[in-house]
Design a protein that fits this description.
globular; 26% helix; Pnp Oxidase, Chain A; 698 residues; alpha+beta; flagellum; five-stranded mixed β-sheet; 4 domains; ten-stranded mixed β-sheet; Phage tail protein beta-alpha-beta fold; cilium
């Protein structure tokens, strides 16, 4: 039986609109979608050419779908069936006639407050033509075929010859073609940089497809998208696919494992392409008939967070020939794009969910894998929304992977200085020698340590060592942003900050991690507590310079007790990665040095750990089995921290020793104090590494 229909006020403007373009969705919009009961109402707004509302039609949907496709020029298509008033039967005087523009909203009534208004989610702005409407007089049901404005240019050709000069910014070129066909309503339009330009005079004859020209401009540099947004505005965007920090915050999180009934996930399916895993892409362009030059670009996966990087699985190259490309930048752009698509298992997720109406193509979502319980970022490829009362939303998305950018010409002097420090000044080999002398462990010399220079951000991490379960080789990444003020002639690698940040000490710290990964194996070191790994890495070169930067306490005793409290928390499993954490971990290492008794005791401790299993269980007791039970060693370490003599040296500003394990306050390996400038005596270096084959990843 037809639903009772009441025509709303003419030219009604909706309230509580969510258009899907918001960077952050309101709490109210998220809340109504999590309601256990949804009271739905669909609204169609008929718009004039100037965007004003001609009419508003509200009714109940009896069927239909909305489809979003991130890869297509026509992003939004679909069908809609709803019960309406008979006056909407299509004719040349009806609002439902060709050349009309519609906005479709799905309203969800907010049952948590009065008055019970709907939150109206904009599903898209659509155009119809003469063949897209059906009306059933008996049921008063109208069927509308939907497509966004790009469909207007489908099949339309140029009226006149088009010529755009070489060197035109791509954003100007694509805006120009849209203005040529009469577009005046633009959304976000990316502004091209000085390199993203037309590389040749672009000429097209009358009759050339408008959509073909749009695609040419979109794909001139591959990591761009264009089309119409939910408001019906033409937009041109660069996909932020290379750096994780540039990716927008996820719009929604789906977790099928959650016990919270507000989770909207109904089903989960993941697929993999295991055959075509590549991590290096070479794109070759067209050879110039004038110069004979052949443009070329290559990109490789180097991000240590990716299990598919070249150190983890070896280099797997794919070469692509594209005769449309005329310069290196275009080739690099396509190489990045190809890598983004294929430098992994091409992991795709398909989930069915209760509709989240504001999600858009290329939005980022978080999805929890119900098997592994791990949370990953995905970018939406396609969406299908069933508009029926009990309809669902189906989402296809691909897993996000990231690549850290290569360094540029401006960074080459810094790179050269760091290479010299490694090759000639022992920035790696001298710490290895100290690790062998003081801790009694070393790498076996069979495996590669790849040195990679990246450009991340100033602050944060300066260098980072990564080991792999799939390979005995390791990667040492050095962030050049933190070495921008490196004194190119200083043997210690002074970077203009604290003496604790000298490059030889930073790299020495990382070599402790590298040697442990090689000696114990990556799986075992992963089971070691963070405080142990970071504490003994700090002890290697001394923690005094970092200790003195910890300020804000009324007395030395208050500072001491605060650090011991932090150490107690670390022994109980916490780690916040602050400077205070590194100092507290260093102090735990000092206490363990005193409890071990002598050099043999330290060597025995490190070699004992190689024989132990399940290190994440009772680690402290397995390292130092000097008490009757595992429960007693914790108190033993804390008690030692209260009385150990290192505090006097840390608090003495006239004492130049860094309080390292090799200095005159501990093992006294060299019969002299070790100051920040000579904690590693660079003049004695004879090789780049004692236990690794060093490879610079260029």
């Amino acid at each position: 039986m037809p639903l009772k229909y009441k025509k709303p006020n003419y030219n009604e403007t909706l309230s509580n609109i969510v258009n899907g373009l918001e960077e952050k969705v309101s709490g109210r919009a998220a809340s109504v979608l999590r309601q256990p009961i949804r009271n739905l109402q669909t609204t169609i707004q008929v718009l004039d050419n100037d965007g004003s509302i001609i009419d508003t039609i509200t009714g109940k949907t009896t069927g239909g779908t909305i489809n979003y496709d991130a890869t297509s020029l026509i992003r939004r298509t679909g069908t809609l069936k709803m019960v309406v008033d008979p006056s909407y039967m299509p004719n040349n005087k009806s609002v439902f006639w060709f050349d009309k523009k519609f906005r479709v909203y799905q309203g969800v009534v907010d049952l948590s407050r009065f008055p019970r208004e709907a939150v109206n989610f904009l599903l898209g702005t659509f155009w119809v033509n003469e063949s897209s409407l059906r009306f059933d007089k008996t049921t008063r049901e109208i069927s509308v075929t939907l497509a966004d404005k790009m469909t207007l240019w489908d099949g339309q050709g140029l009226e006149n010859k088009l010529k755009i000069k070489r060197g035109t910014p791509m954003s100007d070129a694509i805006r120009g073609i849209m203005e040529l066909v009469g577009e005046t309503d633009f959304g976000y339009m990316y502004t091209s940089n000085g390199e993203e330009i037309l590389q040749y005079d672009y000429e097209k004859e009358p009759g050339t497809s408008i959509n073909d020209i749009i695609e040419d401009f979109r794909d001139m540099y591959m990591d761009f998208i264009c089309g119409y947004n939910s408001l019906g505005q033409f937009e041109y965007r660069k996909l932020p696919i290379q750096k994780e920090e540039e990716i927008p915050k996820p719009k929604w999180e789906f977790d099928a494992t959650s016990q919270d009934r507000a989770d909207l996930t109904l089903s989960f399916q993941e697929s993999y392409d295991l055959k075509n895993v590549k991590n290096r892409f070479v794109v070759i362009g067209s050879t110039s008939t004038k110069t004979g030059y052949t443009p070329k670009g290559s990109v490789k996966i180097t991000d240590t967070n990716s299990e598919f990087n070249i150190d983890a699985i070896g280099t797997r190259t794919k070469v692509i020939q594209n005769s449309d490309l005329t310069n290196d930048l275009q080739c690099v752009s396509q190489a990045r794009y190809e890598m983004w698509k294929a430098a992994h298992f091409q992991e795709k997720v398909s989930i069915d969910v209760a509709p989240v109406y504001f999600l858009q193509p290329n939005d980022v979502i978080l999805v929890t894998n119900p098997v592994t319980k791990k949370v990953y970022q995905y970018m939406i490829d396609t969406i299908q929304i069933d508009l029926d009362v009990d309809g669902i939303m189906s989402i296809d998305a691909h897993k996000m992977y990231f690549v850290k950018p290569d360094y540029g010409e401006a960074d080459m002097p810094i790179v050269a200085a760091i290479k010299n420090g490694i090759n000639k000044l022992g920035w790696l080999s001298l710490p290895e020698e100290r690790i062998k002398d003081a801790y009694g462990i070393s790498a076996d010399g069979k495996n590669y340590l790849s040195i990679r220079f990246v450009v991340d951000e100033e602050g944060g991490w300066q260098a980072e060592t990564t080991a792999y379960n799939t390979s005995r080789n390791q990667t040492l990444e050095i962030d050049l942003r933190d070495f921008e003020k490196l004194n190119l002639k200083d043997e210690n690698g002074d970077v203009g900050r604290s003496k604790g940040d000298y490059a030889d000490r930073v790299l020495g710290h990382e070599m402790f991690h590298a040697v442990c990964n090689d000696f114990y194996g990556a799986v075992k070191t992963m089971d070691m507590p963070v405080w142990f790994k970071e504490g003994f890495a700090e002890l290697l070169h001394g923690g005094k310079d970092r200790y003195v930067t910890i300020t804000g306490f009324e007395s030395r005793e208050a500072k001491k007790q605060a650090l011991i409290k932090r150490a107690r928390n670390q022994l109980n499993g916490t780690w916040e990665s602050t400077s205070d954490d590194y100092v507290a971990a260093y102090l735990i290492a000092c206490a363990m040095y005193y409890l071990a008794g002598d050099l043999k005791g330290i060597h025995d401790m490190f070699q004992r750990l190689e024989k132990e299993s399940n290190l994440n269980l009772n680690f402290l007791y397995k390292a130092l089995p000097i008490t009757e039970s595992a429960g007693q060693i914790f108190d033993k370490v804390i008690d030692e921290m209260q009385k150990m003599p290192i505090w006097d040296f840390l608090n003495d500003p006239t004492d130049v020793d860094t309080c390292s394990i090799g200095g005159n306050h501990m093992l006294n390996l060299y019969d002299r104090p070790l100051s920040p400038e000579d904690v590693f005596n660079n003049q004695t270096a004879t090789t780049d590494s004692l236990g690794f084959k060093i490879k610079f990843d260029e």
